[in-house]
Amino acid sequence: MAKQQVRIGMIGYKFMGKAHSHAYRDLPFYFNTQVEPVMQAIVGRDEAGVKAAADRMGWHSYETDWRRLIERDDIDLIDIGVTNHLHAEIAIAAAEAGKHVICEKPLAMNVEEAGRMLEAVNKAGVVHMVCHNYRFVPAIRFAKQLIDSGKLGKIYHFRSRYLQDWIMDPQFPLVWRLRKEVCGSGTHGDLMAHSIDLARYLVGEMSEVVGMMDTFIKRRPLGEMSGGLHAEVSGEQIGEVDVDDAVAFMSRFKNGAFGVFEATRFGKGNRNGNSFEINGSKGSVRWNMENMNQLQLYVEDDEKGEQGFRNISCTEDIHPYAGAYWPAGHIIGYEHTFINIVHELMNGIAENKSPSPNFTDGYRNQVILDAVENSAKSKSWITLPKF
Ligand code: SOE
């Protein structure tokens, strides 16, 4: 019997547009999903640019206005890979039109918007996800299995660092990722949102937070992103940076564990240094994105004298997702995290369930982001709502 088709409309064709397009295209190579993804249409404002992207990435058609995509009755799923200030408007319009939605992170500009987005998808009964792709790294999935099985015992500490350095040059321009009206926050929503997602996934909900944030370079020349994380200065004009360059916070988890989080775009030498360590009563795990297939594991059951962190290459059939790709030891990369997430999304659509992380996760994440920001302003601890 022919599989049900899910006709996708992707909004955005640059960094995330490319990651998601590649994922839809490659998905059938590796996974036998319950439904068939169809790359129906892609949207971008620049006609020549979006047409070229559609041809290169394998989309059947293109549009230059996202509203037109939502009106089309040959689209079942809207994939939002554009700037943060458009997430809410597009997601709500998509849900109201009865379309499933996947949205890039951070879900929204603030908690009020995230709440409206969650309400819209719930009311419409559509399937929804938010693209926290690091949850889909086999080594992280495996760490979750170890924690859930009790192998690490009672969890006492979650400690994360997310370090990048691509805006350290004071001449790096004031691109959209540094303008509050377009992105909501800086490093906080861009990087810390990922660390918060991993903490919630691996350790659970938090009960209180206290944070600090700062902007090291307060004025920059105007300019635009030019591909990947590169940018070009567009003239002589200078503008004020109104988002954070760096953020740190501490939290208490509901299970009593301590959380210590740091995220910065001023971590010289770190290109995408997303890492964490978890310590439990019986063992610990460590992970770093720049070596993403490896999980470091310490278990106290090891013989005395032989104890120590061991490196596990999470490429065996037994490791989540890994068996879908290559034989053991044949590593996967960043792009595969997106294939794994759209695999879950397609099965979610087949079963009419919203796999995690979904808009509930995105909303709760935004509650924490906003609380850390408020705490940094008020220089005080903030109690989080009970979830
Ligand atoms: C840039 O900081 C960026 O591309 C983020 O936007 C992504 O979410 C992160 O995964 C990698 O870095």
Distance between the termini: 42 Å
Q: Over the alpha carbons, how many angstroms does the gyration radius reach?
A: 21 Å
Helix content: 25-40%
Strand fraction equals 25-35%
Oligomer: single chain
Q: CATH class of the largest domain, please?
A: Alpha Beta
Ions, cofactors and other ligands present here are:
alpha-L-sorbopyranose
CATH fold label of the largest domain = Dihydrodipicolinate Reductase, domain 2
Biggest beta sheet summary: 9 strands, mixed
Arithmetic mean pLDDT: 97
What does this structure look like?
It is a single chain. The protein is of the alpha/beta class. It folds into two domains: 4-133, Rossmann fold, CATH 3.40.50; 140-355 and 365-378, 2-Layer Sandwich (Dihydrodipicolinate Reductase, domain 2). 33% of the residues lie in helices and 29% in strands. The chain is built from ten helices and 17 strands. The protein has helices at 15-30, 47-57, 66-71, 87-96, 111-124, 138-148, 180-183, 187-202, 334-351, 359-378, and strands at residues 4-11, 35-43, 61-63, 77-80, 100-104, 128-131, 155-163, 206-214, 219-227, 230-240, 246-253, 258-264, 273-280, 283-288, 294-299, 310-313, 382-383. The strands form three sheets. Strands 16-15-14-13-7-12-11-8-17 form a nine-stranded mixed beta sheet. Helix 5 (111-124) links the parallel strand 5 and strand 6. Helix 4 (87-96) runs parallel beside helix 5 and helix 8 (187-202) packs across helix 10 (359-378). It is globular, with a radius of gyration of 21 Å. The N and C termini lie far apart (42 Å). 47% of the residues are buried. It binds alpha-L-sorbopyranose (SOE). Residues 164, 190-191, 229, 272 line the site of alpha-L-sorbopyranose. Residues 164, 190-191, 229, 272 line the site of alpha-L-sorbopyranose (SOE). This is Gfo/Idh/MocA family oxidoreductase. Residues 6-131 form the Gfo/Idh/MocA-like oxidoreductase N-terminal domain. Pfam families: GFO_IDH_MocA, GFO_IDH_MocA_C3.
